């Protein structure tokens, strides 16, 4: 496994990273959860779990903890001259937005990586089967979407193991990478995750902040402007407006000669660099 990411890269990444936090207004409430068929007894767990941390709240501590010579299996992008990208969608699957996204991807023969949340997966395992059948990759984004950096090592272990088992039970395919909610994870946790689960930690090089709903054309433009060879694009398939921004972004990037691969494929390409 190729190892990368020296301090300079970590600083650059931290500056670019914000979060994949859902603002409180977007946290699934009882009414919307009922609309998508979520059982009442799970509502509190779902709502609490989706209160993601922000990267900003933890990055300083993480970087200080890692020091200037830290090397680990953390990816925000890979080194390559090829015009390849990985587009990732977090926090789903969602009842209506995810199927629409899958249609958009299929029409363009684009493969993506989905960092799914266990508390969402449990209601829609069939969507994971569709993802796998259509060539997408599924990554581990925990069960509750809680803040890993604030959890005990055993708490992190349980979050990832349960989500791993859910994904494998739904699809027959175990996840191969993980993305910590909000990008919040400590060095020691990353090392445990790598050694016990074999997961590299996957962050991103471009965050269009789609969850802030800045406007469809703004999200599209941020994705286009933020793309570079070997980059990892962050999006969320919980929000209709996010999905609305995808077709034009993909069409523009495809017209510029980019092709899309899954995260694991992207990491494998760096090994050949
Ligand atoms: Ni997330």
Overview of this protein structure:
The chain is α/β, with parallel strands linked by helices and 273 residues long. The protein has a single domain (7-271), classed as Glycoside hydrolase/deacetylase (TIM Barrel, Alpha-Beta Barrel), CATH 3.20.20. Helix content is 44%, strand content 10%. It has helices spanning 7-16, 30-35, 43-49, 59-66, 97-107, 118-121, 125-133, 153-171, 187-197, 216-226, 240-244, 246-255, 263-271; strands at residues 74-75, 84-90, 113-116, 137-140, 201-202, 231-236, 259-260. The strands form 2 sheets. Strands 2, 3, 4, 6 and 7 form a 5-stranded parallel β-sheet that branches. Strands 1-5 form a two-stranded parallel ribbon. Helix 7 (125-133) packs across helix 8 (153-171), helix 8 (153-171) packs parallel to helix 9 and helix 10 (216-226) runs parallel beside helix 12. It is globular, with a radius of gyration of 17 Å. It starts with 6 loop residues before the first helix and ends with a helix. Residues 1-71 have low confidence and may be disordered. The site of nickel (II) ion has 7 residues, from loops.
